UniProtKB/TrEMBL annotation:
<dbReference type="InterPro" id="IPR011004">
    <property type="entry name" value="Trimer_LpxA-like_sf"/>
</dbReference>
<feature type="domain" description="Glucose-1-phosphate adenylyltransferase/Bifunctional protein GlmU-like C-terminal hexapeptide">
    <location>
        <begin position="306"/>
        <end position="409"/>
    </location>
</feature>
<comment type="similarity">
    <text>Belongs to the bacterial/plant glucose-1-phosphate adenylyltransferase family.</text>
</comment>
<feature type="binding site">
    <location>
        <position position="171"/>
    </location>
    <ligand>
        <name>alpha-D-glucose 1-phosphate</name>
    </ligand>
</feature>
<feature type="domain" description="Nucleotidyl transferase">
    <location>
        <begin position="14"/>
        <end position="283"/>
    </location>
</feature>
<keyword id="KW-0119">Carbohydrate metabolism</keyword>
<dbReference type="GO" id="GO:0005524">
    <property type="term" value="F:ATP binding"/>
</dbReference>
<dbReference type="InterPro" id="IPR011831">
    <property type="entry name" value="ADP-Glc_PPase"/>
</dbReference>
<dbReference type="InterPro" id="IPR005836">
    <property type="entry name" value="ADP_Glu_pyroP_CS"/>
</dbReference>
<feature type="binding site">
    <location>
        <begin position="186"/>
        <end position="187"/>
    </location>
    <ligand>
        <name>alpha-D-glucose 1-phosphate</name>
    </ligand>
</feature>
<dbReference type="Pfam" id="PF00483">
    <property type="entry name" value="NTP_transferase"/>
</dbReference>
<feature type="site" description="Could play a key role in the communication between the regulatory and the substrate sites">
    <location>
        <position position="66"/>
    </location>
</feature>
<comment type="subunit">
    <text>Homotetramer.</text>
</comment>
<keyword id="KW-0548">Nucleotidyltransferase</keyword>
<dbReference type="Pfam" id="PF24894">
    <property type="entry name" value="Hexapep_GlmU"/>
</dbReference>
<dbReference type="GO" id="GO:0005978">
    <property type="term" value="P:glycogen biosynthetic process"/>
</dbReference>
<feature type="binding site">
    <location>
        <position position="106"/>
    </location>
    <ligand>
        <name>alpha-D-glucose 1-phosphate</name>
    </ligand>
</feature>
Length: 422
């Protein structure tokens, strides 16, 4: 009788690449890496990849960090410290630490794995699931692992199905009718269509499944190649496409949905507009991303805070929230909050109004402030009477305003404004 675990996830590890800054988020990543940016009221972006792995049955994980990693490391230490080595569970945080030589940090996504080969070896696993730590989605990696093994692939690449016009921003897979990748094209001007739907293309999600012994050999060969950029998408995957068997896995087949007819939800919240929109979308009556699904929860660090509190009930001074998410520790004091997402510990004061606001933890909004279509960074202190979102030209003097009218406010911006106005 076979003793092999039924679930392939028991023989796999998740290697999460979380070293990128995410510069398109501008000042939101001045002090934290993109995977550590807050999302959805109480989570951080990296929680989605980690939760997907945990819910899929993977109990061995590693997180490679590099850019301004303290916030990310602290979050993982506080919120993901429940793995027990005596149960053969591990979560290792792997900061870039010049492990190969004293001259180089992580040189690319593939190099981040290469520099930690000995640590991956110590896990005693058969399969590696390479994950980007900066996307919002729910996915059962066990489905992709099973497809990888059943197809006999050397690598399986997770793919989104997107309109061809949008595929120019991705790495795109050209596949045959069996789903084998025949070409990997980086941001092509003319993306190839899918065999069963020429109007759509297969775009890489930055998710890869390998047998560890196969990937290990590839990484060693890549490290010896002086011309390599040490990147999975640019170097490793094209080699397998050319000399091995690379298969495309469609996200539609492994996406975790809260209802059968729900769309396959995946978001790259890498711009201020995308970040604001994805958060505000959660205030919809039936959002495409269900954070309330207890069958596939998004795990995170939960602070010990009191319940949200709403006070005052005068006609022009009423604490209320409509179509909004209000997190624990918030005090909504005589403030009207609409279509907004308010993170932990935010305090608002009387006669203020918030419309389509994403307020990160512990922001404070003073009396008579009016904010519309705004992102507030952590711990900002909005002064009394500040109006943002009604006069774009005035907002541009002090804050960052996107082309679509989303305004980002950070404390240094407010301090410069206060100094200029005396």
């Amino acid at each position: 009788m076979s003793t092999t675990p039924h679930r392939l996830s028991a023989r796999a590890m998740a290697f999460v690449l979380a070293g990128g800054r995410g510069s398109r988020l501008k000042e939101l990543t001045n002090n934290r890496a993109k995977p550590a940016v807050y999302f959805g009221g109480k989570t951080r972006i990296i929680d989605f990849a980690l939760s997907n792995a945990l819910n899929s049955g993977i109990r061995k994980m590693a997180i490679a960090t590099q850019y301004k990693a303290h916030s990310l490391i602290r979050h993982c230490q506080r919120g993901w410290n429940f793995f027990r080595a005596e149960r053969n569970e591990y979560l290792d945080i792997l900061p870039a630490s010049q492990r190969v030589d004293e001259a180089h940090w992580y040189q690319g996504t593939a190099d981040a794995v290469y520099q930690n080969i000995d640590i991956v070896d110590s896990y005693g696993i058969d399969y590696v699931v390479i994950l980007a730590g900066d996307h919002i989605y729910k996915m059962d990696y066990e489905v992709m692992l099973r497809e990888h093994v059943d197809s006999g692939a050397d690598v399986t690449v997770g793919c989104l199905t997107v309109p061809r016009a949008e595929a120019t921003a991705f790495g795109v897979m050209d596949v045959d009718k069996a789903g084998q990748i025949t070409r990997f094209l980086e941001k092509p001007s003319q993306p190839p269509g899918m065999p069963d739907d020429p109007t759509r293309a297969l775009a890489s999600m930055g998710i890869y499944v390998f047998r560890w012994d196969f990937l290990r050999k590839l990484l060693i060969e890549d490290a010896a190649n002086a011309d390599s950029a040490r990147d999975f998408g640019g170097d490793i995957i094209p080699i397998v496409v050319q000399h091995g068997k690379a298969m495309a896995h469609r996200f539609d087949d492994s996406c975790v949905r809260h209802r059968p007819d729900a769309p396959a939800y995946w978001r790259d919240v890498g711009t201020l507009d995308a970040f604001w929109q994805a958060n505000i979308d959660l205030t919809d009556f039936d959002p495409d991303l269900d954070l309330w699904d207890t069958n596939w929860p998004i795990w995170t660090y939960s602070e010990s805070v009191p319940p949200a509190k709403f006070i005052h009930d005068d006609p022009d001074r009423r604490g209320l929230a409509v179509s909004s998410l209000i997190s624990g520790g918030c005090i909504i004091s005589g403030t009207e909050v609409r279509n907004s997402l308010v993170f932990t510990g935010v305090h608002t004061n009387s006669f203020a109004k918030l419309e389509q606001v994403v307020a990160l933890p512990y922001a404070t909004i003073a009396r008579h402030a009016r904010l519309t279509k705004v992102v507030l960074d952590r711990r900002v202190q909005i002064p009394q009477g500040l109006v943002v979102g009604e006069d774009p030209q005035e907002d541009l003097k002090w804050f960052r305003v996107t082309d679509s009218g989303v305004t980002l406010i950070t404390q240094p911006m407010l301090d410069r404004r206060a100094a200029a106005l005396g």
